[in-house]
Amino acid sequence: MKIEDKTDESSAQGFMFGLVILGPAAGKLKYTLLDKQDITLLQNHLLEAYVEIDRNGQGAQVFAFAYDVKKGKESGRYVHEILWEKYYGGIAPGFKVVHKNGITVDNRVENLMLCPKNISHYQCAGQKNPEDSLYWAAVVEMPHEAEPLYMKLFTAQEELSLMKEERYFECHYPPCTKMEQRPQEFSICGLCQVTRYCSSACQTRDWTWHKPICNQRPRPIFIESYPDR
Ligand SMILES: [Zn+2]
Ligand SMILES: [Zn+2]
């Protein structure tokens, strides 16, 4: 996907981390949070968002995926695995790397931990309130640019074909990382019938930015219309 990496270090948080745009996944534009020193590590890499669907029916998760530009996509790996190996030498056999705060695109090293492979990430990692997270704080500073950028990257038709491939959607409010646990769990914006939210609180908070583009969207014919809950 032809997406330029973009880092925002203009945040008032002390320049310790950067927010990198991954591109579209699960119906929205996704970012990953990285420690400042790791942004350069991934300089020769292309970053994308990758939706992994749980085989045991526990919904889906969005991860940051990186691949070496010269070696191609086959060289791609999860960013949290690349970083764990960089800092700890390797992933112990029988273990996987999970995100402590449950936010799977928060790839600051302090947010990573090992979890036995046979235990679900839900049990290893805490289910903290995403609103308390640094990821939320970082993204909430830039939702105003997320929508127009998303619309600039894709024409309405391209966007619709992207959406068609999605089975699970994440709450569209940019800082919120709540993901549907089953298809069509979230409510759809009653006007455009496209955008999905985990709660009316998120929908209300997103409205300022969603409003200008909501009406520009052609009504998709493939998505069943659900009344706004
Ligand atoms: Zn939400
Ligand atoms: Zn809408």
UniProtKB/TrEMBL annotation:
GO molecular function, one term: zinc ion binding
Zinc-finger found in the keyword field: yes
Domain of life: Eukaryota
Keyword annotations: Metal-binding, Zinc, Zinc-finger
Pfam families according to UniProt: HNH_3, zf-MYND
Domain MYND-type: 176-214
One GO CC term, this protein: cytoplasm
InterPro entries attached to this UniProt entry: His-Me_finger_sf, HNH_nuc, ZMYND19, Znf_MYND
PANTHER family attached to this UniProt entry: ZINC FINGER MYND DOMAIN-CONTAINING PROTEIN 19
Protein name, per record: MYND-type domain-containing protein
Provenance organism: Larinioides sclopetarius
